[in-house]
Specification:
With about 190 residues, this protein is an alpha+beta fold. Helices cover about 55% and strands about 15% of the residues. The protein has four helices and eight strands, in the order ββαββββαββαα. The strands form three sheets. A four-stranded antiparallel beta sheet has the order 5-6-8-7. A two-stranded antiparallel ribbon has the order 1-2. It has a two-stranded antiparallel ribbon with strand order 3-4. A hairpin with a 2-residue loop joins β1 and β2. It starts with a strand and ends with a helix.
Amino acid sequence: MATGNFDIKEIEKRMKSSVASLKSEFGGLRTGRASATLLDPIMVQTSYGAKMPIQQVAAVNAPEPRLITVQVWDKSNLHGVEKAIRESSLGLNPVIDGLTLRLPIPELNQERRQELVKIAKKYAEATRVAVRNVRKDGMDQIKKLEKDGKISEDESGKTSTKVQDLTDKTIKEIDALLATKEHEIMQV
């Protein structure tokens, strides 16, 4: 709905993009179970000198609950992929088997699980702050339009309520994602 020069769809799009970013961050948190998305943030220095996401130089799969396999397409990139995985903060040690890297996923101890939960909470709070900033921008736009006489006081109130409702809904979604991730991490 466009009111004056205000578009609530744009506010919604920005909030959804914050939530999508949170989902991506959560995908990189280890839960003790193998997941192909675990390696998404890893960038590989290729034999051609370029840095590329791991998915562009290899096929990543999770054939078993405690194993990730990385099938490198070009043999010259094998050691670059291995090095990138070793140097990542994931704590994985690849085993080379031909053109395939096998990554056994070790059990997480209770202390490491609690650390991961803290990191997940930090990510969620940063996303909540981003959503609140989007809300603030929207509210500021509405106030400016009202002050400039482009929308009435009633329209301003209704639109502000819609922005707040959208914010509340997005915050609830973030909280639900955090609760799910927390449960995943703490599951033994």
